[in-house]
């Protein structure tokens, strides 16, 4: 048994399809099948249930995969430690976020200090983030609040007011502030569930006594403006995006109550080894970003 077999097994277990796994690994499908068969022969039990090229992990495969993941996590941790010992401070920082529009300035300012740093940013749903942190797939995840899971630490970075976005011809466009209840009978353009703002606004609407009526679910915040501009509904955004709202010829309104706010924070796993550059990024978030937030309030 060698690492190549385990790496192949890991990919097949994830995609559950021999042809797709072979394409991802850049090898011929028959070679991949033979490698997996040899691995099963060495272990002494089948690891997959097969239905043509579509395969599923069986109970043996699921148990084995847990140990394989641990092996690769340990190897990645070891690589980080050795790189640190060699003084490779330029390194790479892996990040996860559900919403990314507020991150460019934050990352740019850090990169000005450390020009050689590389960021690897993945967009993912909030529910995925604890697993990504625990497995070491991400050093940090940007999320709106803490997770009640052992070892996962969280820190507030900034708070943004949530604004209502409407076309200039909308019945509310002339108002400065409106009760959230005014949205009760409006079609709403909003991010899909699991992206943070959607879940938050559903909670605020329930507190205001109504259920948010989602007319259009979008994958990216920028698409919001096009849909509202086409008068297909109203939307929500944060004050950070207000300039872009005006660029699209739209109007923003403050919501009552004023507690309609979105919190942005960062989480990390306390048992995961952080490289020198990742620790420097953590200190930067504490010393610069959090201090700025406190000065604003």
UniProtKB/TrEMBL annotation:
Superkingdom of origin organism: Bacteria
Sorted UniProt keywords: DNA-binding, Transcription, Transcription regulation
Alphabetized GO MF terms: DNA binding; DNA-binding transcription factor activity
One Pfam family per UniProt: HTH_1
Stretches assigned to the HTH lysR-type domain: 1-58
Signal peptide: none
SUPFAM superfamilies: Periplasmic binding protein-like II, Winged helix' DNA-binding domain
The keyword DNA damage is assigned to this record: no
GO cellular component: protein-DNA complex
Family: Belongs to the LysR transcriptional regulatory family.
PANTHER family referenced in this protein's UniProt entry, alphabetically: HTH-TYPE TRANSCRIPTIONAL REGULATOR CYNR, TRANSCRIPTIONAL DUAL REGULATOR HCAR-RELATED
Protein known as: LysR family transcriptional regulator
Natural source organism: Ktedonosporobacter rubrisoli
């Amino acid at each position: 048994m060698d690492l190549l077999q385990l790496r192949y097994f890991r990919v097949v277990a994830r995609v559950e399809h021999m042809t797709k796994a072979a394409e991802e690994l850049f090898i011929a499908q028959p070679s991949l099948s033979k490698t997996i068969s040899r691995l099963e022969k060495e272990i002494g039990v089948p690891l997959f249930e097969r239905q043509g090229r579509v395969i599923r992990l069986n109970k043996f495969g699921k148990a084995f995969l847990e140990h394989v993941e641990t092996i690769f996590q340990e190897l990645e941790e070891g690589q980080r430690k050795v790189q640190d010992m060699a003084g490779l401070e330029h390194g790479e920082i892996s990040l996860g976020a559900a919403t990314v529009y507020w991150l460019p300035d934050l990352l740019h300012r850090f990169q000005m200090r450390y020009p050689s740093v590389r960021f690897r940013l993945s967009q993912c749903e909030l529910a995925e983030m604890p697993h990504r942190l625990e497995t070491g797939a991400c050093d940090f995840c940007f999320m709106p609040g803490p997770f009640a899971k052992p070892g996962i630490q969280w820190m507030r970075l900034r708070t943004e007011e949530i604004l209502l976005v409407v076309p200039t011809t909308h019945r509310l466009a002339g108002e400065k502030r409106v009760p959230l209840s005014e949205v009760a009978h409006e079609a709403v353009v909003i991010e899909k569930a699991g992206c943070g703002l959607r879940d938050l606004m559903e909670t605020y609407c329930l507190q205001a006594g109504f259920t948010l009526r989602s007319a259009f679910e979008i994958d990216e915040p920028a698409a919001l403006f096009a849909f509202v501009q086409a008068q297909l509904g109203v939307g929500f955004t944060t004050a950070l995006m207000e300039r872009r709202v005006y660029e699209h010829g739209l109007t923003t309104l403050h919501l009552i109550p004023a507690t309609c706010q979105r919190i942005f924070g960062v989480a990390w796993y306390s048992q995961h080894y952080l490289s020198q550059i990742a620790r420097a990024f953590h200190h930067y978030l504490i010393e610069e970003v959090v201090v700025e937030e406190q000065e604003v309030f």
